[in-house]
Amino acid sequence: MIPQHEVPSYLTPHEIGPWGDYLTQIERVTPYLGSLSRWVETLKRPKRILVVDVPIERDNGTIAHFEGYRVQHNTSRGPGKGGVRFHQNVTLSEVMALSAWMTIKNAAVNVPYGGAKGGIRVDPKTLSQGELQRMTRRYTSEIGIIIGPNKDIPAPDVNTNEQTMAWMMDTYSMNEGATATGVVTGKPISLGGSLGRREATGRGVYVVGSAAAHTIGLNIEGAKIAVQGFGNVGGISAKLFAEAGAKIVAVQDHAGTVFHSNGLNVPKLLAHVAEFGSVVGFSGSEEKMSRDNFWDVDCDIMIPAALEQQITETNAHRIRAKIILEGANGPTTPQADDILHAKGVLVVPDVLANAGGVTVSYFEWVQDFSSYFWSEDEINSRLTRIMTEAFNAVRQVSVDKEVSLRTAAFLIGCTRVLQAREMRGLYP
Ligand SMILES: NC(=O)c1ccc[n+]([C@@H]2O[C@H](COP(=O)([O-])OP(=O)(O)OC[C@H]3O[C@@H](n4cnc5c(N)ncnc54)[C@H](O)[C@@H]3O)[C@@H](O)[C@H]2O)c1
């Protein structure tokens, strides 16, 4: 059963979108929070929402305006932390939900951050490099009043990357009058970035996915995997699973789907995407597959690594995988969670599965403050340890309380956030 949620006056009921999914997830964990449930309303209201106008001069001399957001959902455990997304479908509901999932995720893996997220409603593919740079800089300047190395630290997300972070760092630094590398993570290595950050989310997905497979007796070697989204998260996860002997049988991105029953050649597919911008036209695909048929693919693990609300009550019953490994944030709706649970599919939730990115972002931030940089081996082994421990802790709670991995991860995360809230007390 999906409850009706109270909708804040700044969202209309039909716009509740991913924020509604998040509220249902909070409803589901609340009965397990004991006396801390007194504080649970704090998780249902973002602490701070900033909506900004981002005007730029286009290359042709016209002026374009874009809608920009930064939401700080909760800062009880530390500064806000979360990515910045450039996408034509960005909405306030989406950014609110993404910021809230960051709160839960950061607490679930115990990095000392609150949760935040930002975005601009724009299709960046329609902008030149110069326009993209001007938009990124103006947005950074507009949200500059609430971000900072000790306040809120953005990072890359969908359609943003190291170059975006370099422009953001430079803009913030110019406004401050001093170079502030710690204001963003996911920077280029030459500007205070961390080794292993680019691969960190995909690596974490691989580590947690392998641990989850082990618990159901599934061998990664020879396992069939379908991946939706072949960008930073989907591309790296697919590469690591393929290197471990899995067969990546299907890959879908924004433009199309490719399939090979014996496994696609992942390095060649990555090279194709780097050259042509999508998987479409890849010569190593066995057959053409419609977008919708992706959900019927015969596979052991499905990795949604694109956008929210992809697995819903309309397609969940068709999924043949034994494990859903959430690389994306919010890919599975609560209704789909129920269907998958009834089918015996193990859903490894986003707030655990994709936490590798923010974990190495935390390493990057620590390295920036101490101006002392670690080796890639050190980073990867610390990442693997944190992700494995987090998975084991979540699984233990799920067994003890007889709840899904998602509710278990929420239970750990919400408990840490609400304990901090209670101990700090309400100001004034
Ligand atoms: N980058 C990170 O470190 C990180 C960390 C944690 C979670 N995530 C989450 O992972 C997801 C992907 O992020 P990313 O950084 O890999 O982004 P990205 O921009 O690098 O890649 C996004 C991919 O999704 C595909 N895509 C977009 N729309 C699609 C659609 N409708 N159907 C199928 N595929 C579609 C794109 O073609 C692309 O392959 C997002 O949910 C993001 O919030 C990212």
Task: Please provide a brief summary of the model.
Helices cover 41% and strands 16% of the residues. It is built from twelve helices and twelve strands.
List the main descriptive attributes of the protein structure presented here.
428 residues, alpha/beta, Rossmann fold, 2 domains, seven-stranded mixed β-sheet, five-stranded mixed β-sheet, 41% helix, binds nicotinamide-adenine-dinucleotide, NAD, Glu/Leu/Phe/Val/Trp_DH_dimer, nucleotide-binding, nucleotide binding, glutamate dehydrogenase (NAD+) activity
Q: What ligands does this structure carry?
A: nicotinamide-adenine-dinucleotide
Structural shape: globular
| Strand order within the widest beta sheet | 9-8-7-6-10-11-12
Strand content: 15-25%
The helix tally amounts to: 12
Total strand count, please? 12
CATH architecture of the largest domain: 3-Layer(aba) Sandwich
Largest sheet: 7 strands, mixed
Domain Glutamate/phenylalanine/leucine/valine/L-tryptophan dehydrogenase C-terminal: 194-425
Site (Important for catalysis): 157
Binding site for substrate: 81, 105, 361
Active site: 117
Spell out the blueprint of helices and strands.
Layout: H1 17-29, E1 48-57, E2 63-74, E3 80-87, H2 92-108, E4 115-121, H3 129-143, E5 152-156, H4 162-176, H5 197-215, E6 224-228, H6 232-243, E7 247-252, E8 257-259, H7 266-276, E9 287-288, E10 301-304, E11 323-325, H8 334-343, E12 346-348, H9 350-353, H10 356-370, H11 376-401, H12 405-424
Helix pairs in contact: 1-2, 1-12, 2-12, 3-4, 5-6, 5-10, 5-11, 10-11, 11-12
The structure holds nicotinamide-adenine-dinucleotide.
Nicotinamide-adenine-dinucleotide binds next to helix 6.
